[in-house]
Amino acid sequence: MKRISLKTIALALGMGCCGAALAAQTLVRDVRVFDGERMLARRSVLIDGARIVDPDFHGALPAGARVVDGAGRTLLPGLIDAHVHAYRFFDLPLMFGVTTQIDMFTGVAVMQEITRKMKSGQNQGQADMFSAGTLATAPGGHGTEYGMPIPTLGAPAEAQAFVDARIAEGSFFIKIVLESGNDKHPLHSLDLATVKALVAAAHLRGKLAVAHISTLADARGALEAGVDGLVHLFVGGQIDPAELASLVALAQSSHAFVIPTFSVMESIAGLKADDILADASLAGLLDKEQTQPLRASYGPVPRPALMTAPNTLTAALSKAGVRILAGTDAGNTGTQYGISLHHEMASLVQAGLTPVEALAAATSAPARAFGLRERGRILKGYKADLLLVEGDPGADIASTRRIVEVWKDGEPLSALRSARRAQVAAERAAPAQERVQLPADGRISLFANGQLGSPVGIGWVPSNDAFLGGKSTVSLTLQEAEANAQPALAVEANVAPGFPYPWAGLAFMPGKQPMQPANLSGTKVIRFKVRGDGKAYNVAVMSSGVTIPVNVGFVAAGEWKEVAIPFSEFKGIDAGAVTMIAFNAGPRVGAYSFQIADVRLVNE
Q1: 123 to each of 24, 119, 128, 597, how far by Cα in Å?
Q2: At residue 522, does pLDDT exceed 50?
Q3: Hey, which residues does 561 pair with through a beta bridge?
Q4: Which residues are CB-neighbours of 430 under 8 A, at least 6 positions away?
Q5: Rounded distance between C-alpha atoms, residue 378 and residue 81, angstroms
Q6: Distance CA 142, CA 302 (A)
Q7: How far apart are the first and last CA of the chain?
Q8: 261, 233 in Cβ contact below 8 A?
Q9: Angle at CA 360, nearest 5°, toward 349 and 342?
Q10: How far is it, in rounded angstroms, from Cα 112 to Cα 129?
Q11: What is the pLDDT of residue 4?
Q12: Which run of H or of E encompasses 243?
């Protein structure tokens, strides 16, 4: 047998690798380059496999290289959304050039699976993710309301064990919640001594500690406790100049970064990201379910004055040299993965950043702040996660929306983007789901003969927070019809503490399966008769893509009265895909009692 030396084998392997690399090379030629920090007028960038091999290439075109014309275009690092809650649509960010997401709270299994794929080089088809995993919150605090039990803590002595458990699960950093809610939705919150202990515990293990806040006082408390960054600012009107200067100085001296999350703050203020929905090149990549959250907002009416505080504070922080990161809080109402980052950058510019500063806030700044190696810059050896756009986003930030190509790990995604666009177009062209045929009078409450009947769907079921770990209870009792009236249903509810947004009541499900959407687009008004204990209640409606119900209040007075609520008041709800209509007590704790009858969905 002929002997082959190790040197020969190594040479052959090297030549084979070289050939594979050459076949995979791409040259983006004569392109404007934003390298993550500054705009460079004209460069040629060579990509070899999953890496940038030369950010300023000169010389002969490599054999077999694919050439992409960069004339009139700008090449940027793949965008980084510095604040998301990634639990679905993991490929969607790539459609908009967002190649990395920094996740502030998701399921541990989701975090571990994406981390495994990243480490094994098998995460090409979705955005990379660096996650806090389970956030640090108090029992009954913000973060406990999402349907999955999570560990909590309530004292400084528990901090190190809590942090160590999160690191063992795979948390990349530690997120701490300082959130007391408001008068309508009070929440338990960690005290500052526990926050300080959590920061120290995270730093002892070499991990960043960041804080969720929603007030100026909590922002100050978190910074004084030593957090590395604030992952929100807060809505509000004018800030006292002395308080503004003091908070900016504290952030500056703390060397902390700030993620304002304008996208979700605007939603709280009742403002919608109409700019991105109106952009067909972007919106054409979202299916109906993905579009729905962008049509809704947390605030029931626009209150633009609430954006005064975050705009003022962001401008002052940036001027003082505090690092500003672009993050959307995607996963919440008013946001969507990937697409919202383009709106976020525009909001940062509106707040006072230059376009180049906003671009850095979505590339190099989050990479540097969170220690993400080989990301956020166009430099030799960095990941070939790239975004090519028409125009100059250094002059007009909206140019980031004119996407020509996206590369993830060196692989172009134009084919995937085209396929997604075709899929969305086909969905929109498809006949609408057949409208639910309601009876002529629209009555959906067929309460008789001991049955909670309905002419359509699953019908009526008791509803409370128990399936999410809450302690509220409800009992339903059918009552005989009074003269010239429909039979009524008596609802006795006990709304109990132990869940951040407790509720109890009854729900109507129009689909054939639980939470299956049904087309109720013929419905213009929800009518029902009610009487009760004089307390305030809510009609809550959900549709596909809406994870938090939209509520409209009513009062159950001592005498029977008819309530009529236009369906248009349920902002952001798609009448063509309704999953639930509920009549609930809460969130204030206590005993409730009301009777409901003659519920109708009418077209008038």
Answers
A1: 18, 8, 7, 53
A2: yes
A3: 530
A4: none
A5: 17
A6: 25
A7: 91
A8: yes
A9: 55
A10: 10
A11: 31
A12: helix 241-254
Q: Retrieve residue 309's tokens.
A: 């505080």
Q: What is the pLDDT of residue 290?
A: 93
The radius of gyration of the chain's CA atoms, rounded to the nearest angstrom, is 27
Enter the tokens of residue 456: 């359509």
Contact 512, 457 (CB under 8 A): yes
Structure tokens at 461: 């079921």
Q: What is the pLDDT of residues 62-94, one digit of tens each?
A: 999 999 999 999 999 999 999 999 999 999 999
Q: pLDDT tens for residues 123-133? A: 999 999 999 99
- Residue 5 sits at φ, ψ, to 5 deg, of -75, 155
Q: In this structure, are residues 134 and 112 in contact, taking their beta carbons and an 8 Å threshold?
A: no
Distance CA 174, CA 164 (A): 10
pLDDT at 431 over 50: yes
Q: What are phi and psi of 592, to 5 degrees?
A: -130, 150
Residue among 563, 549, 564 nearest 594 (CA):
563
Backbone torsions φ then ψ of 530, nearest 5 degrees: -150, 150
* 212-267: pLDDT as tens digits: 999 999 999 999 999 999 999 999 999 999 999 999 999 999 999 999 999 999 99
Strand 39-48 to 26-34 pairing: antiparallel
Residue of higher predicted confidence among 463 and 2: 463
Tokens of 49: 């496999």
- Phi, psi dihedral angles at 414 (to 5 degrees): -60, -35
Distances, alpha carbon 352 to alpha carbons 192, 234, 528, in Å: 32, 17, 49
Q: What is the pLDDT of residue 289?
A: 87
Predicted confidence (pLDDT) at residue 308 exceeds the cutoff of 90: yes
- Identify the three-state secondary structure at position 112: helix
Give the position of tokens 């085209």. 418
Torsion of Cα atoms, 82 then 87 then 92 then 97, to 10°? 10
Look up tokens 């959130």; give the residue: 179
